[in-house]
């Protein structure tokens, strides 16, 4: 049995848009590249043909990946998220106790995690430790860098 892919509505929409783009636009572009490369004659030494076939293989693999993700998707309705405790789909403001620095994160499923955009996975050490906590709670997280300590300042919906 495949693992459920937890997605926010935003993440679901992004994957659906990418899938549409790959199926409608990219497939057509690649088919045109292959056609043009074939018209050049001998395919055994045709770099454009090989590159287009490689690109086609990559696009088809990505389409398969997205379809598999969507087939096993479980969408979190962010408006229904309970803001009493931290769960997937909510935003949190925490205080890094060591550096006295406030951090904002959105807790998302692993498919959407992007630390550069402040989206942390529910499966990451910090995300896992935060789940179920309430504002005011102190959270200790064991990481490769050692134990980190955070205080949950607030839980809110995305703005």
Describe this structure in words.
By secondary structure, the chain is α/β, with parallel strands linked by helices. It contains 3 helices and 7 strands. The strands form 2 sheets. Strands 5-4-3-7-6 form a 5-stranded mixed β-sheet. Strands 1-2 form a two-stranded parallel sheet. Helix 1 packs antiparallel against helix 2. The protein is elongated, with a radius of gyration of 22 Å.
Please tag this protein with its features.
159 residues; 5-stranded mixed β-sheet; two-stranded parallel sheet; 3 helices; 26% strand
Write the layout of secondary structure elements.
Blueprint: E1 5-8, H1 9-38, H2 47-71, E2 73-76, E3 91-96, E4 101-108, E5 119-121, H3 125-130, E6 138-143, E7 146-156
Parallel strand pairs: 1-2, 4-5
Antiparallel strand pairs: 3-4, 3-7, 6-7
Oligomer: single chain
| Strand proportion | 25-35%
The number of distinct β-strands equals 7
Distance between the termini: 36 Å
> Which residues form runs of ≥5 with pLDDT under 50?
none
The profile of the biggest β sheet is: 5 strands, mixed
- SSE ordering: EHHEEEEHEE
Name the strands of the widest sheet in spatial order: 5-4-3-7-6
Helical fraction equals 25-40%
Question: What global shape is seen?
Answer: elongated
If you average the pLDDT, what whole number results? 92
Rg computed from alpha carbons, rounded to a whole number of angstroms: 22 Å
Q: From the helix content, strand content and strand pairing, which structural class follows?
A: alpha/beta
Q: How many helices in DSSP terms?
A: 3
